[in-house]
Amino acid sequence: MIFDTDIFIWVQRGNEKAASQMEKSADKFLSIQTYMELFQSAKNKSQHKYVKDFITSYGFVVLPFTENIGHRASIYIEEYTISSGLRSGDAIIAATAVENNMPLLSSNAKHFKLIKELKLKVFKP
């Protein structure tokens, strides 16, 4: 399963339901987009180290940005930006899930619901 950035934020805020989702998932993946967003939100070296240690300790695998992911994300932007406000980061995360044939866990259903081929699992905190 691929975890959206918001799930990591829920865990950092102490949401036990989100932490449980991570713990019980046998295969833990995140897109390179989520990886960069998590590091970008770190305000200092200590938080940067915390993010890195967290990803490592939970055994997450970072899925790379590929040509196919980029192409699919650009199609999503063309199709859904005007109708639903889809942003480039979310398009990359959705395209990563679709290209890797994995479900995406996110609490932001409105960002992803129009993407028909996406296996979206909605998290309700």
Principal-axis shape equals globular
State the order of secondary-structure elements, H for helix, E for strand.
EHHEHHEHHEHE
Structural class: mainly alpha
* CATH homologous superfamily heading: 5'-nuclease
CATH architecture: 3-Layer(aba) Sandwich
Question: Biggest β-sheet, characterized?
Answer: 3 strands, parallel
Task: Give the strand order, joined by hyphens, for the main sheet.
Answer: 1-4-5
Supply the CATH class: Alpha Beta
Low-pLDDT segments, ≥5 res = none
| Quaternary structure of the protein | single chain
Please tell me the total number of domains: 1
Number of strands: 5
* Percent range of helical residues: 55-70%
| Overall mean confidence score, pLDDT | 95
Distance between the termini: 18 Å
Approximate strand percentage = 5-15%
As a whole number of angstroms, the C-alpha radius of gyration is 14 Å
Output the CATH topology: Rossmann fold
Tally of DSSP helical segments: 7
Report what the structure shows.
- The protein has a three-stranded parallel beta sheet. It has a two-stranded parallel sheet with strand order 2-3.
- It has a single domain, classed as Rossmann fold, CATH 3.40.50.1010.
- The protein is built from seven helices and five strands; from the N terminus they run βααβααβααβαβ.
- The protein has 125 residues and is mostly helical.
